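Pilot study result, target chain (60 residues):
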Amino acid sequence: MESFWGKLKQEWLNDQHFKTREEAKAAIFWYIEAYYRRKRTHATNGYRTPEVYTASAANF
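Predicted structure:
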């Protein structure tokens, strides 16, 4: 979990400024659902995205 928060801060939130809490929530939601789960590959998943890894694990 610490690695995830570090990546979130480093890759997405660095240098971003939000006017409201809702704006920050929307940006974090986008990072998790649109980028982190669908596009960002992970070494522990065999360099597959979490979405692909989960789908392939469900087929077994």
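One observation from the pilot: The chain has one domain: 2-58. A full batch analysis is planned for the follow-on phase.
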